[in-house]
Each structure stands twice: as C-alpha cells, then as structure tokens.
Design brief:
The protein is an alpha/beta fold and 569 residues long. The protein binds cobalamin and iron/sulfur cluster.
Length: 569
Amino acid sequence: MTEGTGMHCLLIFPEFTAGAFWNYRATCELMGAKYPASPLGLITVAALLPKSWECRLVDCNVQELSDADIDWADIVFTGGMIVQQHSSLALIERLKASGKTVVAGGPDATSSPHLYDLADFLVLGEAEVTLPRWLADLEAGCAAHIYECGEERADMSRSPVPRFDLLQFDKYLHISIQYGRGCPFHCEFCDIVKLFGQVPRLKSNEQILREIDLLYASGHRGHVDFVDDNFIGNKREVKKLLPVLRDWLEAHDWPFEFSTEASINVADDEQLLQLMQDVGFFVLFVGVESPSMETLVATQKRQNTRRSIAESIRKIHSYGMAVNSGYIIGFDAERGSVAQSMLALIEASATPVNMVGLLAALPGTQLTRRLAREGRLHEDFAVPPEDAADQCSGGLNFVTKRPRVEILEDYRRVIAGAYAPHAYFNRVYQMGAALNCRKKKLRLPWRERLRELRGFGRLIWRMGVKKDYRIEFWRTLARLALRNPRALRHGVSWMALYLHFGEFMKVVLTRLDKDIELAKASHRPHEVRATKREPVAALGAAPIGILRYPDPRAPVLRSRLGPTDSAGA
Ligand code: B12
Ligand code: SF4
C-alpha cells in the first residue's frame, strides 16, 4: 500500500441483522427505499481523510458489496455498532483474504477491540481524535496497530462536514446529521455518558447550517434526523440554534422536517417546544423506561419523576411532535408485575411506537459496576446473543431480583398487548387527533409528493387490502380524516410502520414463548440464560440466541457487548 495521491479508499458499512426493531424494511419498500437511516460515522471518517484520497461508500444495507468494489480499493475502512458485529467480522475476513489493508473503528470495535484484531489498524473512539494521529504515523511510516482516545474528547466545533456526497439519498427514508454528543443526565444503565461524556459538546450554528446547505444542494428534501444522544442536552445553546435554523428554512421555502432524541424534560420548556415546532420537528424519541416512580428513582432517571409522564408526552404531541417511547423491563426495583401499569402508561400516552426491551448491563455503566459488586453479573455478561438483533432479543445478563420467568412473562404481556392491531391503531388515532399540525410548513417538491403518493398506493394494497387487520386501517384513516385531517400524513406513516412491527412482534413473541418455557424448566429461576434454539424463519430473523450459560464460547467472545436497552435520552 502506498499513501498519497490517488489512494483508493473504500468505506463499507456492514449489514444490520434483519429481524430488528428499527429495521423496518417493509415500510421502506413502500417508499422505494432500502433502509431507514443513512450511516453518519463512516461519512464523517471520509471527511477526515486527505483530500487526495478517492473515497467510495458501500452501505451493505442498501447495496451489494461486489468483488469489483474490493478490487478497486487500496485500503478499506469499516465499522458499526454491536448489532453489526457478525457482519463486520465476516467482512474483515473476506477483505483480508483478498489481501486488503483494513482499518476498523466505530462503536463496537471501540467496545471490543480484540475481536477486530484481524484488521490491520484499529482506529477507535471518536475519529476526530484518533484518525489524524494514525494518518500522521502512517505518513511517517510508523503506524501502530491500535489508536485510542483515552480521556480525550473530540472538539465538535472542529468536526468536519460529513461527506454527504457519498450517500445514495433515495435509498434511505431519512438522512442523519448530528449537532452534539454527550448527555447531562446519568441514568444508571446508560453508557452514553461513558462513551461521550456528561457535558454535551456541540457543533456551532454555522456548522449545522453548512451541513443543511449541503443536504439542500444535494437535492435531499423531507426528513432529516438529528442523531444526538439528547438534542436538548444544552438547552441554552439549542435555543440559539433553532431560530437560526428557522430563518434558513424560511429562506429556502421549508424543505426539511426533523426528528431526534430528547429527554422528557423538553415538555417543561414551552419556549423550547415552540422553537422545535417552528422549525418542523415532527418526532422525538423519549426514554420513558418504566411506569414505576420507585424504579425511575432507583435507576437515576430522575428527570422522569415528579411528573405525569403521560401528560408530558401529550404536551409534546400538542406541539405537533409525535413521541416514540423507550421502555425497559427487568429493573431491580420492580415490585411484582409491571406489565399492567406499563400498558396503561403506553395507552395513556398514546404513543404508537414503543421500543420495549429487556434490561442489559453494558460494560462501563454504573449498573454493571453495581451488579459486579453484588456478585450478580454473569461471567459472560458482555457476550451478546449470537446474531442478536437488538434489545428485544437479548438482555438480562445478570442474576435478576425477580424470577426471570416473571420478567419474561411481563415482557410478553406488554408486547402482545401494545402491538395487538386494535391497540396499535387506536393509539395512532389518539396521537393523530392530539397532534397540532397547524404550524407545519414543510413544502415538498412534486417528485417527493409523488413518491409519497406511490407509497400510499402500495400501503393501501398491502395493508388496506391484504392484511387481516385491514378494518383497523380503514377505520383509523377515516376517523383521523374527520378529526384532524392535517395529521393524516403522519397518521399514515405510523400505520405504515405497522407493516414491520406487526410481523416483528410475532417473531418476538414466538421467541419469548420458548424462553419462558426454558426459564420455567430451570432450577435456577433468577439465573438461567436459556439456550440456543432453532432459527425463527419469519423476517429472516436469527435464533433468539440467548446463550447457554455458562457458554462454551465465552472465553473467545468474553468482551462482546450485550445489546443495550433504550440508551439515548
Ligand atoms: C443513529 C443511531 C442508530 C440508528 C442507526 C442509523 C445508521 N444507519 O447508522 C438506529 C435507530 C437504526 C439505531 C439502532 C440501534 N442502535 Co444505535 N445509535 C445511534 C446513535 C444515536 C447515533 C449514531 C451516529 O450516527 N452517530 C454519529 C456518528 C458521527 O458517530 P459514530 O457512528 O459513533 O462515528 C464516529 C466514531 O465512532 C468513529 N467511527 C465510526 N465508524 C468508524 C469506522 C472507522 C474505520 C473508523 C476509523 C472510525 C469510525 O468516527 C465517527 C466520528 O467520530 C448512537 C449513539 C451515538 N451517540 O453515537 C447509537 C448507538 C450507536 N446505537 C447503539 C445500539 C446498541 C443500537 C441498538 C442495538 C439498540 C438501541 N439502543 O436502539 C439498535 C439496533 C439497530 C438495528 N438492529 O437496526 C449503541 C452501540 C453500542 C455499541 N457498542 O455498539 C449506541 C452507541 C448507543 C447506545 N449506547 O445505545 N441506532
Ligand atoms: S438514557 Fe438518555 S437521558 Fe439517560 S443518560 Fe442516557 S442519553 Fe442521557
């Protein structure tokens, strides 16, 4: 390999496991897209590379990686999150077999570097910190195998504009950008503070406008997702950004609408809600975690206490922003079943999409340290289920306080109850009725409107004609059209998501039934971690993959990270 002019650099984003909560491909297909979200990490890495390097991106979630792509490359960069680990490792083997130089990085390689040893270089943590060091050493001919951030954090005001030009925009439902990293809270189970710190680091308003400008110039219109851990982590600064963004949008005839993650205290600040509504935020992911105040206090999710969560969520709805919620089951402080109260809260909040997962102890979190002190952490706690898709098919990697079977049964009740067609569609209606869409200003060009119309046509065929819950679809459509026609577009999107969630939840329930059976058969009701099982064919999903405990592969896989709960806001 020779560095310098003309270096062919291939950036490969590995494939996600098919059967995952966020992997709503069926819904993407309606819009002619392949995957919901564009990869931001690798295009940020590309922007940090020397200008003379020629970069190409292959996102394996939206396109095939061909041998010709690999042949073209002098050097390959790859990396992703834990749920891409199996595909990442297989990819690195393929690349090494082709004699390529491989640089690995990103969240999973940072968490479990030794698994990526086959790569020539491990450039870990925030690339803004480590990549320049590696490049300098490479140029000097003394590059080491591994580069880490240590305590150093990236100065976001110097983070480069990502190479959006490498994306195939029409393959995604939305395009990711990032304003800041880090979160001021310290929820016991969350690793965000460990990964990105407690003081949110932000890009400047000028940087964000430059990125928005570029997206506009590239022809993208519609949905842009701020992938911040907590968008309102620094309210003072975000309140300065939003008016500037509003002016830009006005000057460009409102080409974008936004989504992000935010902590629930956004509901306490009407000025902030107003500013977010004004620029066209239309969906927020909020970590609710539990209906039990005792549990929230114990897990240090204090911002969710001393309030009615349902009221806070409804307030956000009243500012035209839909809420997607995250819930976790398996906390120590749960006293008996939480299923009923969780379902009641989901109902009262009228949130159609609720990411309900099992608690997992992640390396580096306060939770993990406490469980270790109490001698309750599984020896292989950091080993993810084989082919685990996400928090819906992994977790409980510790000795639980309640019998495991009770937790799994609770989980089953919540999933079955919340995702039954009637319950889901009713929440779509309730939320749609509550969404104040009078201030929506998004103006899509004809090309985008046609895309949406075609998507709606496909939805009518797939859901309104072919699905056995088609009555719910038509009823919700009609009720919403009469009650709040302005919210119809959003209501239709949430119904379209059910093409995925309806099928996905059946798979989760089948897996849970087997887990519950295994847990019942166990002599160690708080400890059993179930077993390997036959693959569940639907959705191309992998086996539930909760590992035998103790697992014979544990020594090899020891430090693989378990899938997270609803980390993020
Ligand atoms: C957006 C996002 C998603 C999107 C993914 C969209 C996409 N196509 O990328 C969606 C919603 C699908 C998603 C889902 C999940 N996610 Co997610 N997600 C994020 C989030 C909020 C932002 C990621 C991002 O774009 N960041 C911005 C870019 C610039 O940062 P970055 O990717 O880390 O890249 C930087 C460095 O890592 C590095 N880098 C990245 N790649 C490479 C490669 C090389 C070669 C090099 C040198 C450097 C390098 O350079 C970049 C610049 O510094 C992060 C949290 C976070 N703050 O990062 C979690 C995060 C990545 N997700 C995580 C997880 C676990 C999940 C889920 C499994 C569960 C969950 N919590 O929801 C699911 C499952 C996904 C699935 N099966 O479909 C974990 C990953 C933990 C780990 N160690 O792997 C994170 C860190 C959050 C957390 N703690 O829960 N997620
Ligand atoms: S769960 Fe959310 S609010 Fe809590 S520390 Fe993590 S990112 Fe912040």
